[in-house]
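User: Fold both of these, please.

Assistant: Here is the first one.
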Amino acid sequence: MRKSLDALYLGAGWLAALFMIGVLAMVLLSIVSRLVGFYVPGTDAYAGYAMAGAGFLALAHTLKANEHIRVTLIIGKLRGGARRGLELWALSVAVLMSGALAWFSWRLVWQSHTFHDISTAADATPLWIPQILMGLGCTVLFIALLDEWVLEWRGQRVRAEGDTRHE
């Protein structure tokens, strides 16, 4: 199970990296097309879709790499059971919030598809297509946070470097 979860997080990270390359490609296409005198409609919109996709898909990989910004003003002063309790509480809230975010992201995808919602930009892309990336990223983040919650509950959670935990 651990290998599958780690592969999921790594795969989402690689997909996020590919979408960042997509942002670069759209920006370069826009610049080059202006220089040579032709217009490629939708490059700005597609760069935006790729940027949003990269951001959402990178969330879980960033979490599992301990790269999320974390304010430890209070929890850094706690030790033992108090620290573990606060960690579990914070992770429980994060799991609930990310679960709601994933649910409502997929609901938005479904509603955009149902109502035939399209982009108002020159590309006129059906919005449910790029919104799938948001739903996917939020779902993988929910899984990663649930994974962290289970690891904390079992006492197997790996701390970020420099995060001193004394129990």
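And the second sequence with its predicted structure:
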Amino acid sequence: MKNQFLKIQGEKVFLRYVKYGDFEEMLELFKTSLEIYEGLINPPLDLESFKVYVDRNLEDANECFLICQNIGNKIVGAINLTQIFRKSFQNCYLGYSLGVNFIGKGYMTEAVNLVLHHAFENLKLHRVEANVQPHNLASIKVLQRCGFTKEGFSRKYLKIDNVWCDHERWAIIFEDWKK
């Protein structure tokens, strides 16, 4: 059973589980950021799809967090660990997005480091994988700063806006993170 009040504290931001009451603030964040999200992610823009996003946290295979500023508690983005596999795999996928007005402030690098600590120390995972489109240089720089290693290229890996998109495969394992 997840601690619904979990708060992962950083210097600039903290992470907390997403909840239904966050819809209006998240919708505003998504709408102001649609231009930068185009072709990269499909954020939930209606209440029904937002509820599906929130309900993913009911499954042990997902950890969906909001990234919030320490001062004022404003939501600036989202970060998710999904498809958490157990047993001999101990792996998950990392996904994240930041509102357009919060880019370049170090929030995402800090959030990724916070969620990696949670993944490796609390969830006891061995590997976190992130798949990013090759032209998304800002996202690639975040992964590099956080210690991820580029492992490969996946052709037509993920369908976004009805288009199959190529992705680079990046990952970090516990032993490399521990260094």
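The chain has five helices and eight strands.
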